[in-house]
Model the fold of this input.
Amino acid sequence: MSELTYPLWVEKWWLSQAARIFNGSLDEKSHLLLEKLRQLTGILAVDREAGFDGYSFDEKSLAAYGLFQFPQNFARTACVLDEILRYRCPEWGRSPRLKVLDLGSGAGASTLAVLDFLTAHYEPKTLDVTAVDQSALALSCLTGLLEARPRTQIAVNPTCVRQDVRNFVAGRPGPALDLVVVSFCLNEMFSSGMEPEAAAFLLRLMDATPDGGLVLVVEPAMKSTCGFLQGVRELVRRNQGIEILGPCLQNEACPLFPPKEHWCHEVRSWEAPESTRYLNRKLFRTLDVVKFSFLAIGHAGVWARVPEDSFRAVTPPVREKGKGHVTGCTTYGTLERVEALSRTGDAAKSLARVQRGDLCRVKGERIELKEKQRFRLPAEAQVEILFSPGI
Ligand SMILES: C[S@@+](CC[C@H](N)C(=O)[O-])C[C@H]1O[C@@H](n2cnc3c(N)ncnc32)[C@H](O)[C@@H]1O
Done:
């Protein structure tokens, strides 16, 4: 089972919620659900996933969201947790009681991803989770979901707070939080031009975490939201004692900022639940991958370092006549292109296996090309995938 497998009991919960609200099964009422989905994402057509203007205050929109967007957000946060906690922070979560804060939690896609992750990878422990959202309706779904959890999952002690997240954080968000998740909410609270405010908001959250604590932000993959997040990163990284844990492998300036033709985001393959695929028969969205951007912030010096020669794939493998190439962002904050001629067999195959967002390195010698920052794999070299979230 992949890390990104969506729990069946969550899907069932949303199906029964939709059946109650729409007064009929998915088969009978899919046209109404689709109508809601089209309305709340009127925007889907132009690939705009942020915003969802006020969906969380309307029962029908929220149920449609629960069947379509919620599973995708679950998978997106799960990817980030997998990379940052499993690969970068193996010491995280040792204490028997963990404190997690989910800001702009909505119905709790990220809270559930955290629970699933902890259940899969950590000794049994108790989780104190505080979910903050402006929508009482969304928080009541989160409570319903937590009540429906199978007993095999870790124990949870939930607190739901209906409040503006900015006011909550301006107050006393701590103390001693182990993890703060802000998923698909930053862009709803801070618009373009408000990078300094968003950076101050995240730094305040960092103050509420002890040394081993983390703040994870997950956002849509659109150029505008990625650009915003990268702008926020630029301001956050300059603060002493702060370490950017992802997507960057370093604290230096981002070579993809400001975004031009390319911008930093992840594209991970996953399998959508059946009900989401069913609804998608009429929506025609790309469902075999989840796309997102993220920012993981920790306190400096307490995390596992990545090997110095590693890079994050910031493009998919691109195939051209007779060769393939992938561009990586290195531990020095530079972009490097690695290419392999198709006739090199294993070298080319190893490069073709890379997914955007994988952490990789070249195993063996690489040949420096005349063009700056370009390298070629000889037949005996390979691209080694060090970590591929969710796999
Ligand atoms: C797109 S949803 C994301 C929900 C959830 N985090 C997820 O990943 O699916 C954004 C959520 O942020 C909440 N939200 C937006 N701005 C807020 C604010 N200023 N204070 C509290 N909640 C806010 C909305 O009510 C909504 O539930």
